Amino acid sequence: MKEEIKMNTTDYDYYLPEELIAQTPLKDRSSSRLLVLDRSTESYEDKSFKDIIDYLNPGDALVINDTKVIPARLIGIKEETLAKIELLLLHDIEGDTWECLAKPCKRLHVGTIISFGDGLLKARVDEILGEGIVHVTLLYEGILMNVLDKLGTMPLPPYIHEELKDQSRYQTVYAENLGSAAAPTAGLHFTKELLEQIEKKGIHIVHITLHVGLGTFRPVEEDDITKHKMHTEYYHMSKQSAEELNKVRASGNRVIAVGTTSVRTLETIMNKYGEFKECSGNTNIFIYPGYKFLGVDALITNFHLPKSTLIMLVSAFAGREFILKSYEHAVLEKYRFFSFGDAMFIK
Questions:
Q1: Matching CATH number, 73-151, of 2.40.10.240, 2.40.170.20, 3.40.50.720, 3.10.20.30
Q2: 268: phi > 0 → left, psi -120 to 50 → alpha, else beta; which?
Q3: Could you tell me the pTM of the whole model?
Q4: What is the pLDDT, as a whole number, of residue 141?
């Protein structure tokens, strides 16, 4: 029987005890647990993340998002009043003009100067756009990323309350293109050794880039999910990646996305061109049940927040009822949830 498509945000809610929200990463990245979901039989099994290799076949493509998180969270003071202001750099609009999330935004006006690190970095507010979003010009000497390395911290999600002692643990081992305000967390489970084993088995590891932006921090506040507005995020696919993925599909092998960011990039490109193609652009694709997938055959992902766009995406891929049943199992089995938590493989 075909599942009824639900468009109400509350239909994507589930019960999660707070103690199951992972606060710190595991010592060994690949020792996370893995819940394997089979869409054809609507069954699941409990595994370890290292077992992922057993589910990947020679000739398959494993698509990884090689974005790198910038130390984008800055705590400073408003020069005129010394009031504390927090800025989260979301993306570079042009030159030194950045879109940011500001807290508390109501204390800012056009022309406000915010100072960080005794003036080592300053931000001049150019535009206030609502919902806490501002455009600022950054004023500094030298190289911005060096300044951010001194003054900024990793922008961990608000449900993580523990300090991250090793900042590199909020980066994938293959992160190389700076630009994200959050990590593509499904990739955090991979070690270099595991990726080498996967490659040796004959699986293509294909790089794409999507810089994770504001969408990660925005809950769905509309009752009707179709009214939710996604913010745009920059993506890029190289010629080599496009050619490799097209060959994999032509040979009848699978495209396996690591994370919802990879899914959104692949589906954006397939919707636009009908094939994988060298391209760059901005996407605000919102995938929810009823969506027909064009470029993704299987998915590695983490456990997502209730009522989030991400749980809607995996529900579109595997069916809402099956996903919620699987999440219920994960809660009973005390899986670790969210960014530093365990993983799912949906085949």
A1: 2.40.10.240
A2: alpha
A3: 0.94
A4: 96
